[in-house]
Structure formats: C-alpha cells, structure tokens
Write a structure and sequence with these properties.
The longest helix is centred in the N-terminal third of the chain and has 22 residues. The protein has a domain of 41 residues. By secondary structure, it is mainly α. Belongs to the FlgM family. InterPro entries: Anti-sigma-28_factor_FlgM_sf, FlgM, FlgM_C. This is Negative regulator of flagellin synthesis. Keywords: Bacterial flagellum biogenesis, Cell projection, Cilium, Flagellum, Repressor, Transcription, Transcription regulation.
C-alpha cells in the first residue's frame, strides 16, 4: 500500500495556489485619494500666529507683564470679553 502518492500532493498544491490567486485578486481595490479640509477658524488662528511671529519681542514683553501682574495679584480677568467670546463661539452655526 502506498501512502504518499505524488499526484495527490500535487493536486493539493494546485488547489492552494488557485485559492491564493483568487484571494489576491479580491484584495486589490482601487484606492481613493486622501483629502484634508481646514476650517475657517483654523486658518484664522494660523494668520494670527503669523502676525505674532513678525513681532516676537512685543509678544514676549506682553507675556512678561501679564506674568508679573499674576504674581503680584493685580491681574484682572476681563470677564466681559471672556463672556463675549463664549457667546460668539456657541452662537456659530
């Protein structure tokens, strides 16, 4: 009795190769292009950042004066401006 017939293993290999080929054809899909959209708020923030880069010394001085006022306990938060910003943000469609 023969246990290892070469014809049978050849058929198994042919079946495996056919299955791999079919799977690789199914796996190939046409890919779309990636797309990025930047909101108006982000563009505005970018423009504001460019403005501050032009005058970094003025910004540093303002930051130092605010830090000093906070340390001294004399800094007052402009609550009306904060409230206006919150309202304008939440009212946007």
């Amino acid at each position: 009795m023969r246990i290892n017939e070469t014809n049978r293993t050849g058929m198994i290999n042919a079946y495996n190769n056919t299955a791999k080929t079919a799977a690789s054809k199914e796996g190939k899909h046409k890919m779309g292009k990636d797309e990025v959209q930047i909101s108006d708020e982000a563009l505005e923030m970018l423009r504001m950042g460019e403005d501050t880069e032009e005058t970094p010394q003025v910004r540093k001085q303002r930051i130092q004066s605010i830090k000093q006022a906070i340390e001294d306990g004399t800094y007052q938060v402009p609550t009306d401006k904060v409230a206006e910003k919150f309202l304008s943000f939440w009212k946007k469609p």
